[in-house]
Amino acid sequence: MHQTTPIDLQRQFWNRWNTTHREASIQDVSLRQGDVVRDWFNALGRNDQAILEVGCGSGWLCGQLLSFVQVTATDLSDEVLDRAHLRNPQVRFVAGDFMEIDFGTKIFDVIVTLEVLSHVRDQKAFVHKLASHLKPGGYLMMATQNRTVLQRFNAIAPPAPGQLRRWVDADELQTLLADDFEILELFSVFPKANKGVMRVVNSRKLNLPIRLLLGTRVERLKERLGLGWTLMALAKRAGPVDTHSD
Questions:
Q1: pTM for the full predicted model
Q2: Which position among 38, 39, 53, 173 has the lowest Cβ density within 10 Å, counted as fewest Cβ atoms?
Q3: For residue 54, what pLDDT band results from cuts at 50, 70 and 90?
Q4: Backbone angles phi, psi at 80, to 5 degrees
Q5: CB of 127 within 8 A of CB of 180?
Q6: CB neighbours (10 Å) of residue 5?
């Protein structure tokens, strides 16, 4: 009789979650993250990148990254990736636990990973494996939930079975990346709150006339002040990585 393992529970959870939250529609916070990633790629000024997306979900971003040429994408959600391949056959989709996937000698120019860090068991090992698949001087483009904002200003349902959760704040993210990467940019995006005074500050009713007068300048100021739902980090691989270290 098959025994359900922790990774099986995670796979089941993410197949369900991505079907509902990524295949049905894309939330505004994810769209904002995608905008930042595309801006970073455009700033690099190259269209010959070999790209790996870790935790691609339904593959909604992969199709947009194809303009930068070679895209490999991986996720634990095997059922969702089967459908993603039908939508984007040019992308190489690899289903499985990223920590166990062997990419062989393949080294990438850029790795993109959106809201994955908080859902892995060993965050330091995850960051180290990301670095091991980047060429020297390669770029990491990461989004992860902003613990300060989620804990202080938002009421979040507890994790479901199979859902790992460990948010980090900006200082913790810097520490996690420091051994393997030089951080080039670190800021928050998408101010969002559903409790306390920040719920009022970020209310759509209050912000609509402000946005009509000032555009997105106030929202961008909140992001730079660290009040965004998501932390965005652009980092460069610092140097050789020992893939055989304990």
A1: 0.90
A2: 39
A3: very high
A4: -70, -40
A5: yes
A6: 9
CB atoms within 10 A of CB 97: 13
Q: Where are the domains of the chain?
A: 6-146+163-191+230-236
CATH level 2 (architecture), domain 6-146+163-191+230-236: 3-Layer(aba) Sandwich (3.40)
pLDDT at 90: 94
Report the residue count for the chain.
246
User: C-alpha angle 53/55/58, rounded to 5°?
Assistant: 95
pLDDT digits 0-9 by tens, 9-20: 999 999 999 999
Predicted local distance difference test score (pLDDT) of residue 156: 94
Six-digit token string for 146: 């902003």
Q: Indicate the Cα dihedral angle 83, 123, 113, 76, nearest 10°.
A: -10
Question: pLDDT: is 66 or 128 the higher one?
Answer: 128
Could you tell me the strand order of the sheet in which 134-145 lies? 92-95, 69-75, 49-54, 108-114, 134-145, 228-237, 181-191
Q: Which residues pair with 144 in a beta bridge?
A: 231
Q: Which of 10-19, 65-74, 139-148 has the lowest mean pLDDT?
A: 65-74
CA angle 93, 160, 12 (to 5 degrees): 35
Token digits for 71? 């895209």
pLDDT-derived band at 222, boundaries 50, 70, 90 = confident
d(CA 190, CA 139): 23
